[in-house]
Amino acid sequence: MSDKTNVQSIEEKQYLVRFKANTESHLHVLDSDVCATKCPDKICTIFCPAEVYKWEDIRMHVGYEGCHECGSCRIGCPHENIKWEYPKGGHGIIFRLG
Ligand code: SF4
Ligand code: SF4
């Protein structure tokens, strides 16, 4: 039996969670100019496991609805350019485990 049978894809793992999105984002990129001029690798688009951040020509699109609330972007942005808060009570990620 190959190890592959025991490996879950991101899509399969994400099936185990669902989201109750707020109408207001709990994530804010403070200054897109900083992203454009000081962050050539746009590393939030790499380290975010939920692919929340997508660079669109001149600004960062933030798909906050899919955030897994892992907190990585609090410390991962080298320019402290992301304001991250927990979603308001009753919103955000819901785990299906258990
Ligand atoms: S890591 Fe920070 S500075 Fe870099 S693109 Fe993302 S939000 Fe902008
Ligand atoms: S908290 Fe985690 S999942 Fe949510 S946007 Fe930041 S890095 Fe992505």
Structure notes:
The protein has 98 residues and is α+β, with helices and mostly antiparallel strands. It is built from four helices and six strands. The strands form three sheets. The protein has a two-stranded antiparallel ribbon with strand order 1-6. A two-stranded antiparallel sheet has the order 2-5. The chain has a two-stranded antiparallel ribbon with strand order 3-4. A hairpin with a 2-residue loop joins strand 3 and strand 4 (59-62). The longest helix is centred in the middle third of the chain and has 7 residues, at 32-38. The protein is globular. The relative contact order is 0.27. The model has no long low-confidence stretch (mean pLDDT 84). The site of one iron/sulfur cluster has 13 residues, from helix 4. Residues 27, 48-50, 52, 67-73, 84 line the site of one iron/sulfur cluster.
Which labels suit this protein?
alpha+beta; Alpha-Beta Plaits; 4 helices; two-stranded antiparallel ribbon; two-stranded antiparallel sheet; 98 residues; globular
CATH architecture: 2-Layer Sandwich
Query: Order of strands in the sheet with the most strands?
Result: 1-6
Distance between the termini: 27 Å
The hetero compounds bound to this protein are:
iron/sulfur cluster
Averaged pLDDT: 84
User: In CATH's first tier, which class applies?
Assistant: Alpha Beta
- The tally of beta strands, per DSSP, is 6
Question: Which structural class is indicated by helix and strand composition?
Answer: alpha+beta
- The ordered H/E elements are HEEHHEEHEE
- The proportion of strand residues reads 15-25%
Q: Helix proportion of residues, in percent?
A: 10-25%
How many structural domains does the protein architecture include? Answer: 1
**CA gyration radius, whole angstroms:** 15 Å
Q: Low-confidence parts lasting 5 or more residues at pLDDT below 50?
A: none
Which word captures the global form? globular
At the fold tier of CATH, the topology name is Alpha-Beta Plaits
> Could you give a short account of the major beta sheet?
2 strands, antiparallel
The count of helical stretches stands at 4
